[in-house]
Design a protein that fits this description.
Elements: H1 2-16, E1 34-39, E2 45-49, H2 62-71, E3 79-83, H3 96-101
Parallel strand pairs: 2-3
Antiparallel strand pairs: 1-2
């Protein structure tokens, strides 16, 4: 059963990597906006994410886009996206790949 969850997690990450922050030209996964992805045996998904700031211009639409795209995966049952600002996002959360894309390394 664990392999199924890993397979689904990989698919979820793949879908999330198609979503971009409008202000920073890398996907939200590499940007470090996804804090955690939880999957239960019923294939219910909970995604804990943040935004670059509480005043982010896509605060209303980005979580909805994450939810809708993850729901489009056949194996997924329900999706809940929770926004948190604890800890607040900062540029240190950008992955090494993201930092390379942004010319930070």
């Amino acid at each position: 059963m664990e392999e199924d969850n890993e397979d689904i997690a990989d698919k979820i990450i793949g879908v999330i990597k198609t979503i971009y922050d409008p202000e920073i030209p890398i996907d939200i996964y590499e940007l470090g906006l996804i804090y955690d992805i939880f999957t239960n045996e019923d294939k219910d998904i909970k995604i804990l994410m943040t935004l670059t700031s509480p005043n982010c211009p896509v605060a209303e639409t980005l979580p909805v886009e994450v939810e809708e795209k993850v729901k489009s995966i056949d194996e997924v049952n329900n999706v809940e996206v929770e926004i948190t600002f604890d800890p607040p996002w900062d540029k240190n959360l950008i992955s090494e790949e993201g930092q390379l894309e942004l010319g930070m390394l």
